[in-house]
Automatic annotation (TrEMBL):
The lineage of its organism: Bacteria, Pseudomonadati, Pseudomonadota, Alphaproteobacteria, Sphingomonadales. InterPro entries: Gly_zipper_2TM_dom. Belongs to the rickettsiale 17 kDa surface antigen family. It comes from Tsuneonella dongtanensis. It comes from the Bacteria. This is 17 kDa surface antigen. It holds the Pfam family Rick_17kDa_Anti. One of its GO terms (cellular component) is cell outer membrane. Residues 57-97 form the Glycine zipper 2TM domain. Its main location: membrane.
Amino acid sequence: MNKLLMAAAATSLAIPAAPALAHDTGYSHRHRVENGVQYWEGRDGRYYCKRSNGTVGLLVGGAAGALVGRAIDTRGERATGTILGAAAGALIGREIQKRRSEARCR
């Protein structure tokens, strides 16, 4: 009985999201894959690819920067080093990921 209720609950959550997934993106269904990058042909005949916005790089860089900043700042509460390290790491990580995405999507 519990499995039936869980399946019904999961279905009720998925049904309202289905129309939102079926919106028109302006791209045709034709696409190609080159070197692991997927390209879509737009209605204007040009090819487009999805570029990364750098979110994963921002998060990973922020976490790594916070750890490095905390290790460098050995005086007092070490909050200053953690905050500055997280901010610098987040910016650096985001830029690295965005540049890698741009190089692959040209």
